[in-house]
Design brief:
Layout (H helix, E strand, L loop, with lengths): L6 H6 L2 H14 L3 E5 L10 E4 L5 E7 L6 E2 L1 H14 L4 E6 L2 E2 L1 H9 L2 E4 L1 H10 L4
Helix pairs in contact: 3-4
Length: about 130
């Protein structure tokens, strides 16, 4: 096992492996009742959890090729699923790439936590997560 995981390692993971890694990151950050629910038909809920205040959290995990970015339309869909379908109190979108500036602003307006690839690598390293 490498001493630390980089974006290349994450991109080489299967979707399930990436969701499992993301679950370990959430646990290291203090989230509770972390459960992977991803797969076909997950309705944008790869992980469900509770934050430190007991609020329900839906997490979307996406591995995208380098050079891509997550835009506002993707976040609009996610926000709708978080609040309307799942009726969760919080949403987190984790990805291996960055977010467009309009997407960052849109997420901020709607209380969605964004974790991009560079920050995810730092979280994995700081949490000594493998």
């Amino acid at each position: 096992m490498p001493l630390s995981l980089g974006l290349g390692d994450m991109l080489a993971m299967s979707p399930t492996e990436f969701e499992q890694l993301s679950s370990r990151v959430l646990l290291a950050l203090g989230y509770e009742d972390v459960r992977r629910s991803g797969g076909s038909g997950d309705l944008n809920a790869d992980i469900v959890a509770k934050d430190s205040l007991g609020r329900s959290v839906i997490v979307q995990c996406k591995r995208y090729a380098p050079g891509s970015s997550v835009g506002t339309p993707t976040l609009q869909t996610f926000i709708g699923m978080v609040h309307i379908y799942h009726k969760a109190e919080r949403g987190i979108f984790m990805t291996t790439v960055h977010y467009s500036q309009p997407a960052v602003e849109f997420a901020r307006e709607h209380g969605i936590v964004l974790i991009d690839g560079a920050f995810l690598v730092k979280l994995v390293d700081l949490g000594n997560i493998r």
